[in-house]
């Protein structure tokens, strides 16, 4: 009798409060997935996917899918055939987006070319080869303000070079001299730098590789982005 009553109450709650029932189902699936993946993998969230019967599972910054039982983990992309829209890719873009105002510009090396009207943030490691390639491309941009946040994630030498660049009389010149001209930075390393803050920011927002670019709408572009793609992105922000 108690089981029957409980079932009736559950049905009643589901009909009257579907959002509550969905939230409970998502929490149960999350618990089941977390149990199966173990303590070394953090399941951030579980939410209903745009396909009936599927749930989105967010592990770190990676998107997976599962069924209502939580027994299966599906890796792949959802494509809406009618429109050709990559729903997974769009969702990943939204998850990777930040608030431009969250960036503390005082922690960056700032350079302005032309009228500086277009803004771009770059997270860079001085020993990152792709960062050097990107920096050469960025020299082609005009009417732009570039904020470069150093995050020494490639080793002790990256930390040393970052400190020498930031402690120099002209950090931007020291940075360009190294990244483009190959002239290694030198000098003191004992000044106050924002490296700890930049590294903490990178960890909070899942910036695990360099270079990583951000635009004023918060969108994220990882890797040595082509100059044509940067210009194309800028054109959408007007």
TrEMBL record:
The cross-references to PANTHER family, in alphabetical order and at most eight, read:
THIOL:DISULFIDE INTERCHANGE PROTEIN DSBC, THIOL:DISULFIDE INTERCHANGE PROTEIN DSBC-RELATED
Q: Which family does it belong to?
A: Belongs to the thioredoxin family. DsbC subfamily.
Q: Where in the cell is it found?
A: Periplasm
Domain Thioredoxin-like fold, chain residue ranges per copy: 113-232
Question: Cross-referenced Gene3D superfamilies, in alphabetical order?
Answer: Disulphide bond isomerase, DsbC/G, N-terminal, Glutaredoxin
Q: Which domain of life is it from?
A: Bacteria
Keywords per UniProt: Disulfide bond, Periplasm, Redox-active center, Signal
Return the Pfam families for the record. Answer: DsbC_N, Thioredoxin_2
Q: What is the lineage of its organism?
A: Bacteria, Pseudomonadati, Pseudomonadota, Betaproteobacteria, Burkholderiales
Segments forming domain Disulphide bond isomerase DsbC/G N-terminal: 22-89
Species assigned in the record: Polynucleobacter campilacus
Which positions carry the signal peptide feature in this UniProt record? 1-23
| Coiled-coil region list | none
GO cellular-component term (any): periplasmic space
Q: Under which name does UniProt file this protein? A: Thiol:disulfide interchange protein
The record describes the protein's role as:
Required for disulfide bond formation in some periplasmic proteins. Acts by transferring its disulfide bond to other proteins and is reduced in the process.
